[in-house]
């Protein structure tokens, strides 16, 4: 991970998954299927080896229960696997889960999103990504969306149809699965490390957008200046759909479209000529 030079500009942090593309692509559901398959394989092989006491549950059920418990208690299923000593290789997990998603079939570059990024005035503001994914997935997504050319991971396939595009995102703070007790959002430590990595000394200079309310609240608690919850009401259950666009709740603004950032944060966008 490279450190950014000292910089007094504001910094806007974007979450990646389900923030830079809509939840309607069902990425979260696909991820969940892959992770379920991983848990299932783990349980079946552990039973074969006789490593686990006999269970009343069938493996499918046990996988579901374990996955849900780990996700709920640790924020990320993988953290549960690592912290409960399942002898899992996090990079194998990443390859079989996020790494096996057919991203190119699921997401496409969105010209209006690229324009939104391009319209951010870089003399006033830096733009970074803050994700709970590993760098490989983060870079695959950002490359497909044409927001950032891959730098860190070496595993991206260099396809012949590679398109040239400008970097809209300067740096990526990701969940480092290779570190033994890695942090992720919403751990306060994850946000603090992000500031160190981007060389930010004043958290009030941070602007943040995430589709997870709990991640947004955590940033707010860390003193991050302007925190926005990206929420797509049409995709939620009917009872939840009354949410006001741009409504302020507990000091957090809720938006349903990233274009709303132009009105919300006019100071970070280039002035129209
Ligand atoms: Mg997200």
Automatic annotation (TrEMBL):
SUPFAM superfamilies (UniProt xref): HAD-like
InterPro entries: HAD-like_sf (IPR036412), HAD-SF_hydro_IA (IPR006439), HAD_sf (IPR023214), Pyr-5-nucltdase (IPR010237), SSM1_domain (IPR052791)
GO molecular function: nucleotidase activity
GO biological process, one term: nucleotide catabolic process
Signal peptide as annotated in the record: none
Domain of life: Eukaryota
NCBIfam families per record: HAD-SF-IA-v3
The name this protein goes by in its record: Pyrimidine 5-nucleotidase
Species this protein is from: Piloderma croceum (strain F 1598)
């Amino acid at each position: 991970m490279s450190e950014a030079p000292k910089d007094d500009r504001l910094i806007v942090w974007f979450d990646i998954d389900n923030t830079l593309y809509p939840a309607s692509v069902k990425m979260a559901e696909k991820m969940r299927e892959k992770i379920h398959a991983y848990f299932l394989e783990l349980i079946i092989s552990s039973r074969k080896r006789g490593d686990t006491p006999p269970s009343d549950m069938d493996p499918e059920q046990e996988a579901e229960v374990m996955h849900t418990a780990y996700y709920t208690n640790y924020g990320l299923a993988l953290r549960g696997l690592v912290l409960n000593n399942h002898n899992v290789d996090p990079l194998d997990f990443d390859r079989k889960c996020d790494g096996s998603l057919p991203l190119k079939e699921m997401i496409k570059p969105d010209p209006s999103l690229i324009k939104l990024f391009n319209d951010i005035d870089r003399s006033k503001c830096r733009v970074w990504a803050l994700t709970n994914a590993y760098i490989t997935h983060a870079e695959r997504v950002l490359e497909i969306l044409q927001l950032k050319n891959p730098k860190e991971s070496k595993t991206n396939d260099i396809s012949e149809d590679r398109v040239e595009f400008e970097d809209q995102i300067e740096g990526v703070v990701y969940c480092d699965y290779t570190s033994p007790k890695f942090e992720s959002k919403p751990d306060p430590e994850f946000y603090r490390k992000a500031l160190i990595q981007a060389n930010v000394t004043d958290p009030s200079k941070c602007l943040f957008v995430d589709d997870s309310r709990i991640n947004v609240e955590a940033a707010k608690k860390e003193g991050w200046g302007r925190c926005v919850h990206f929420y797509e009401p049409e995709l939620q259950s009917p009872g939840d759909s009354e949410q006001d666009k741009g409504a302020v709740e507990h000091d957090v603004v809720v938006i349903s479209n990233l274009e709303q950032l132009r009105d919300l944060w006019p100071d970070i966008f280039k002035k129209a000529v």
